[in-house]
Amino acid sequence: MSSTPRKRLAPEAILAAVVVILLAVLVPLVVYSGAGSSLFPPTAVTTQAKGTRGLYDIVFALAIAIFVAVEGVIIWSVIRYRRRPGDNELPPQTHGNNLIEIVWTLIPTVIVLYLFAISWNTLNTVDAVSSSPDMRVHAVAAQFQWKFEYLDNNGKVIATQTEPDAAKGGGLAVPVGKNVLVTLDSPDVIHAFYVPKFLFKRDVVPGQTNRFQFTVDATEATDGHPNVFGGQCAELCGTGHRTMLFNVIAMSPGDFDTWLQALIAKNNATPPPAPSGAPAFALTAHNVAFDKTSLDVQAGQPFVIDFKNTDAGTPHDVDIRQSDKTTVVQDQPVTEGGAESTYTYNALQPGTYVFICSIHPTLMSGTLTVH
Amino acid sequence: MATHALAPATTAYRPGLYEWLTTTDHKKIGIMYVINSFLFFLIGGFFALGVRAELAQPGLQIFTDEHVYNEFFSIHATVMIFLFIIPILAGLGNYIVPLMIGAPDMAFPRVNALSFWMLPLAGLLLLSGFLTQGGAAASGWTSYPPLSEVGPTKSPGPGEDLWIVAIVLIGTSSILGGINFLVTIFKMRAPGMTLFRMPIMVWTMLVTSVLVVMATPVITSALVMLFIDRNYGGHFFDPFGGGNAVLYQNIFWFYSHPAVYVMVLPAMGIVSEVLPVFSRKPLFGYKAFIFATAGIGALGFSVWAHHMFTTGSVFLPFFSLMTFLIAVPTGVKMFNWVATIFRGKLSFSTPFIFAIGFLTMFLIGGINGAFSAAVPVDFALHDTYFVVAHLHYVLFGGSVFGVFAGLYYWFPKMSGRMLDETLGKVHFVLMFVGFNLTFFPMHMLGLQGMPRRIADYASNAGWNDWNLLASIGGFIIGISILPFIWNVFISLRNGKVAGDDPWEGNTLEWATSSPPPPYNFDRLPEIRSERPVFDARHGRLTPHDEMGPA
To answer: At the top level of CATH, which class does the domain A135-268 belong to?
Structure first.
């Protein structure tokens, strides 16, 4: 022990110590209490997502530790080492210390190598694709619409879901506990398949078929009680980017079989024939534009539009909306690029409406006058 | 004994505006860089406030045409990166590097003027997109094809072409500036100013210039290819014509990741000058700092694909490892800064407060970046608001706080007047609070699944409160600029006269008058260490003295 008398503790030192201890206690306390729950991802619903969540928790804990340690020293120094007025003496002119430099190079190196090792390990499970999945889905993202095709083991389409919204009776239904292989394609620009509760996204790149696999945890659905997860395009894809929403619906395997059979039946159903004598109009979509800017129809009488979509890879439809272009009057299903549809519309009241492509509303609309 | 500086050049006096328009003086050019960049900071801020105003609540309030919203965030980022942060740091470097190494000017004064004058031209070209059919570029500052290619639902208008031309011009300006810095630093140093006596600010400008000269031609190639695709029927990035969409991303990020260091290294240099002066201590670990800077520069070329982990065509383990590793030299710098203020005698003048703001915020920007180096975690966070939070903690919490530290620090040298301390502190407090209110909640938004670049969100998504908070913070940042502008205005008129060396600085710019004469130095002090002006003030301390009292 040194024989010099003990120095009195400076008041700044006491204040600095109190603040730093408060920081070291309060930050972890707040973060790991209910108040900090928004600093963590939403509940993981797939087995892959649970792996990612475990990794997140480790990265997060290290992040909090480093944050508290370094901010603590900064706050300590700022409070403790204030220059007093009139103090013209220089503090010790410390230029550095090689041993300390080596130590604080090695410590972060060890930490990041550890993080790399565990994240690589997690990646191998999250990104694993088995050659014999329980189920195959082909997801097509086009401006600005999702389409999901259910495939058999040979890659043949057995059912097509063109309505991505669960609220409208659509969505990508999957059985819980089964591993689902998703292949992704885009006919136009880059999109991304993103489900926040999967803690996962994968880009949908034109000209390149991406794939990933997921298994919704078996606890996510019981018989008759499906669970619906929101999903959304995460890569800027144009003016309708934010409208590219979809749902994943987790069902018990029994419910899923019923659901899939219903979808197959719906795919095979022929649309109801147009009432005989209803007037028909031809309408063509080319280069994301209609060939007509106006249509005239009789009030109180159903009518038909024979719609031809010549834009390969780009889906369109022809809905009827009020002249504000947003209030939907009559909704029609999507027609794929290169396909034709016969849309039948119910009788309308006299007035001015618009016919509009719900996928490209800013580029494709025209006036519909009902006399 | 003092070393004599180079003889003053014979300069004919030219009055006022004509002098500024035709000057080749690195100090005047540097000041013009700073003013021009600051004007673009205000323009970029206007676009940011438009975005925050729209996102404050669910529903579309301002942008009934969502395409205009896409133009706003695209031009916001483009202006802030290419017309504010990169050039304002180049401008501060332009002003200060020749002074710091005891040189009378940059090596190529006319090339220097040319580099500057390309910038306002490029900025006007970029913004003129708003006057064209279809508006300004709207495919993000990254401008990924196929969205940035021609097509009715892609980018049909000339706004995208103007964007390409503007970025190529800015890139050319950067390359010329980078070469000029390299030649100046290697060939124009005063006698005694060895490489390992150069201020860290000069070292960071040196490494930055190497990055600029090596990386900028690469992005130029991508932009030229995109221009050919758009205008002459090329298929470089058209997957249905034999091209590859992800190829563009590889080339783009091969430049744009090193560009992050172009935007951060000089700010690190500023902070490395400010902290020692206001702590009255030398920088802790001067050489370690240089090696860390060079290490960041070198590793910076091997991490670009971490922006592309979700594309499905990246060699994930390699880029994950390199991205983790680049945290090491960055961490070493952080520890050295903290050790510099530790046991110092700290004066809380405005430059120092902004430098402390840099330390505390850049730390968060470093830590939240590590999340995305863990590839599976990046699968969850990529393209969400978490990434927006991260990049603003680096580029705003880091670079912008560093820029303001530098502006407050060198304003007395540039103008001969002191800035008002009270207004400076008001500026700092408003900006610091506004910054954290804006960008911290974006971590939560991203974790909860809010993607970037959307004009609207569902009111039941759970994102309302954090978005409102972020928008309030955004407007506080906007307001925080007003005391700064007022401060500059009144200080230029009535500010306290600065004198040569108001802060008791360490480096050579404080050995000449404020503002310096056109040829910079009448005489130079002896250069025996990295702190020649400190040595002249206190005498060269023997190693024993430097240990201080036991």
So the answer is: mainly beta
